[in-house]
């Protein structure tokens, strides 16, 4: 990738309200995932693995933990003298302080940053998806087509298509219609929220959009439909790897469980495409003689004396003797006490499941979200 010409802008300010208590105190991109990571680790790692040297991370909702996790970007090799990572939060100007009012507005408010770097291409990323992608593949198609914007797409289940921006294309993958979250989608080719723009073209539309008082200042609702209406060269690029929008408690649980599946295509053990995260420097896990473990991920500092089946344990979690955990995601510093049974659950950090307590039903379809506010059933 031509490092001097591509700048990534990572939108990481989402509240993620559909994740309920998972995002009560932290932004959605900061939500823990997969035993040791946070959701934002995936697009950040994709960017550094793709050779992108300049990246702006746009934060907004409850950013403290997210900012601390990212730091100066050293985990992802972004602590550089030239280029690197910058956290871009809403700021005060001569017009007063203001929040980002939409995805497009967030980029518009940081035009000076992009101009300073002298970007030729701007890659827009979302901070709340689980996937591995080489952004060079997207850039290559963008250049081949001489496109103004190229959108990464993938087929989603028909029953979920109305949750996404749906693209209709011709035989050359040129976009002929863009439908943002249609009630009756014409196909299931969904936008992944990953866009490669020519910067000069994007800047023009961001400035024009900022003047429109009736705009919601959103890429999917405003910028992309307007560009299509004006006859710009817009193409779709079909992504065939693993991708999950963890927008609900159930999809979050499913994405974690996917890591344990026989046909898991999100390979966390690929040395050629590592997912990086901030290390905690904890002692090794301890598996007692009384422990029974089957098809599970057990992270650092865990002490397991009970039974764990098809589950993910984050760091420093304790499973006492006689406790049973099935098909669950147990976050850091939790304790499952003697005789307790946990099924199909997502248990937030620091929770203790008391002795003999039963959460969920073995073999059931409901997902149980456990926090200090109680238990929510999804």
UniProtKB/TrEMBL annotation:
Superkingdom in the source lineage: Bacteria
Subunit structure: Homotetramer.
SUPFAM superfamilies per UniProt: Nucleotide-diphospho-sugar transferases (SSF53448), Trimeric LpxA-like enzymes (SSF51161)
InterPro entries, sorted: ADP-Glc_PPase, ADP_Glu_pyroP_CS, GlgC_bac, GlgDAde_trans, GlmU/GlgC-like_hexapep, NTP_transferase_dom, Nucleotide-diphossugar_trans, Trimer_LpxA-like_sf
Catalytic activity annotation: alpha-D-glucose 1-phosphate + ATP + H(+) = ADP-alpha-D-glucose + diphosphate
Species per Swiss-Prot/TrEMBL record: Tissierella creatinophila DSM 6911
Record EC number: 2.7.7.27
Gene it is expressed from: glgC
Name assigned to this protein: Glucose-1-phosphate adenylyltransferase
Residues given in the record as alpha-D-glucose 1-phosphate binding sites: 100, 165, 180-181, 191
Function: Involved in the biosynthesis of ADP-glucose, a building block required for the elongation reactions to produce glycogen. Catalyzes the reaction between ATP and alpha-D-glucose 1-phosphate (G1P) to produce pyrophosphate and ADP-Glc.
């Amino acid at each position: 990738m031509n490092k001097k010409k591509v700048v990534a802008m990572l939108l990481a300010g989402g509240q993620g309200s559909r994740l309920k208590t998972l995002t009560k105190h932290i932004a959605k991109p900061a939500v823990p995932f997969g035993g040791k990571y946070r959701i934002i680790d995936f697009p950040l790692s994709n960017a550094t693995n793709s050779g992108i040297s300049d990246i702006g991370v746009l934060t907004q909702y409850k950013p403290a933990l997210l900012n601390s996790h990212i730091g100066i970007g050293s985990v992802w090799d972004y602590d550089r003298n030239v280029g690197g990572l910058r956290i871009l939060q809403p700021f005060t100007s001569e017009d007063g302080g203001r929040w980002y009012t939409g995805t497009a507005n967030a980029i518009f408010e940081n035009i000076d940053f992009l101009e300073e770097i002298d970007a030729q291409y701007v890659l827009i990323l979302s901070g709340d998806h689980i996937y591995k992608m080489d952004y060079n593949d997207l850039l290559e198609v963008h250049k081949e087509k001489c496109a103004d914007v190229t959108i990464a797409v993938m087929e989603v289940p028909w029953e979920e298509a109305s949750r996404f921006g749906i693209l209709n294309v011709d035989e050359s993958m040129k976009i002929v219609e863009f439908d943002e979250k249609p009630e009756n989608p014409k196909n299931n080719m969904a936008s992944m929220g990953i866009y490669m723009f020519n910067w000069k073209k994007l800047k023009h539309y961001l400035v024009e959009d900022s003047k429109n008082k009736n705009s919601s200042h959103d890429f999917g609702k405003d910028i992309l439909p307007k560009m299509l209406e004006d006859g710009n060269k817009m193409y779709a690029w079909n992504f065939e790897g693993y991708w999950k929008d963890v927008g609900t408690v159930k999809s979050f649980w499913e994405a974690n469980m996917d890591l344990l599946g026989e046909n898991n295509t999100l390979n966390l053990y690929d040395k050629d495409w590592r997912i990086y995260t901030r290390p905690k420097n904890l002692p090794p896990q301890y598996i007692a003689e009384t422990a029974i473990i089957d098809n599970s991920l057990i992270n650092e500092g865990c002490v397991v004396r009970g039974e764990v089946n098809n589950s993910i344990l984050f760091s420093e979690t304790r499973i006492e003797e006689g406790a049973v955990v099935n098909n669950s995601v147990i976050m850091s510093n939790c304790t499952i006490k003697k005789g307790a049974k946990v099924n199909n659950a997502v248990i937030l950090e620091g929770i203790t499941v008391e002795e003999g307590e039963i959460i969920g039903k073995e073999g059931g379809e409901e997902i149980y979200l456990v926090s200090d506010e109680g238990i929510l059933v999804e």
